[in-house]
Amino acid sequence: MASEASSADVLDPPVSPRDHWQGPADAPVVLVEYGDYECPDCLNAWPIVKELRKELGDKLAFVFRHNPQSSIHPHASAAAQAAEAAASQGKFWEMHDFLFGHQKELDNLDLTHLALRLGLEIYRYQSEYEAAANLKRIADDLASAARSGVRGTPTFFINGKRYRGKVEVDAMLKAIRQVAG
Questions:
Q1: So what's the pLDDT on residue 180?
Q2: Where are the domains of the chain?
Q3: Which fold has domain 2-180?
Q4: Facing residues of 155 across strands?
């Protein structure tokens, strides 16, 4: 039983170039979030992550992995698809922020309007929205979440180890600084 608990505290797979990154790849600390764009707790965590990035600068890299909780958030999968469609045009993080900034506007028509507001080429966006590679990426993130013991959102990992503290700036800064040494 103890081995099951410890394996659930480890990020699987580790962060790789396949992930969506903010910050330097050689940062001493990598914060990974498994999130859902329709989750109110993820919305509350969004400015906290921004503050952590501002506070720590190049000492922190941030990675976002999709974990849409579709059974309770009916638009979460569509929002993840929108983020991946935007990523194909180099605008993952812009769409990421738009999705959290417009969390009550996540039906398909709203997502198309967000894509237009971001300046995405709309026909390419619509094609990428349902592209097999993007759907596989989301499925891979969901499988990774399951292997990593993620049960809800947001769930954070600091340098590959599960963070179980409060999702607030001071608590997370303390945990990150302990890891960074």
A1: 84
A2: 2-180
A3: Glutaredoxin (3.40.30)
A4: 34
Residue pair 100/46 in contact by the 8 Å Cβ criterion:
yes
Report pLDDT digits (tens) over 161-176: 999 999 999 999 999 9
> For the chain, what is the HEC assignment?
CHHHHHHCCECCCCCCCCCEEECCCCCCEEEEEEECCCCHHHHHHHHHHHHHHHHHHHHEEEEEEECCCCCCCCCHHHHHHHHHHHHCCCCHHHHHHHHHHCCCCCCHHHHHHHHHHCCCCHHHHHHHHCCHHHHHHHHHHHHHHHHCCCCCCCEEEECCEEECCCCCHHHHHHHHHHHHC
What gap in Å lies between CA 6 and CA 142, rounded to an integer?
19
pLDDT digits (tens, 9 = 90+) for 28-57: 999 999 999 999 999 999 999 999 999 999
Which amino acid does the sequence have at 162? R
Count CB-CB contacts under 10 A for residue 87: 18
Question: Both tokens of residue 146?
Answer: 């399951």
Token code pair at residue 169? 């700036």
